[in-house]
C-alpha cells in the first residue's frame, strides 16, 4: 500500500537540494487531510501554501518564527504590536535540533500535531480560520525535527502500515527526498531516540496504562 502513495513534491529545489514542499502522506485515512513537510522556505511562502491547499502549519523549530498576519487587516491596539488572526492556523512546538529537549517535549509534539488536526474552533468572529485543509510540519531545513515528528505521528496513528518508528522514518525520508548518504544524520539520532521513547509513552496513555 505504501508504494502506491503519490508524491506531490514541488520540483523547485532549495539550496540544500530538497523540495520547497513535500507531500509526505496524502489523505490520512483518519483525518482525511494531506500531510506535508518543508523547511523555512516552503513554510514562509504563503502563496505556495494556499496553492497546495494547506490551512495549518505546525512549526517544530525553536529558532524560527513566521508572521502570517495579513498586514492590511492586522488587529493592533499598541503602536508597535502586530497581532491578530493569521492567514494560516499556526502551532508551535519549539524543538532543538539535537540535544537539549526534555523527552516529554517529543511526546507533546505528537499531541500538538494531533490537536492541530482534531481541534474544533468555536463559531465566533475571533476564530476566523476554521478551514480544514492540508497540514504542513516544518523546521528550518525540513530534514530532522519535522521528519521525526511526522514519523512519530504516522507510526502511532497508522500502526498497521508503520509497525515500527524506523519504518516510518525511512518512509518519510524517501518522501522528503533526503539523499540516502545523509540518512545517518537526518533526522538527528538523538531526536529519533526521543521519539522512540515518546511512542512508548503514547501507547501507554492510549491504553490507559499510563
From TrEMBL:
Q: Does the keyword Hydrolase apply?
A: yes
Superkingdom is Bacteria
Is the keyword Hydrolase assigned to this protein?
yes
Keywords, A to Z, come to: Hydrolase, Plasmid
Name the SUPFAM superfamilies for this protein.
(Phosphotyrosine protein) phosphatases II
For this protein, the record's InterPro entries field holds:
Prot-tyrosine_phosphatase-like (IPR029021), Tyr_Pase_dom (IPR000387)
Domain Tyrosine specific protein phosphatases positions:
111-176
Q: Give the EC number.
A: 3.1.3.16, 3.1.3.48
* Single GO molecular function: protein serine/threonine phosphatase activity
What is the protein name given in its UniProt record?
Answer: Dual specificity protein phosphatase
This chain's source organism reads Ensifer adhaerens
Lineage, opening ranks? Bacteria, Pseudomonadati, Pseudomonadota, Alphaproteobacteria, Hyphomicrobiales
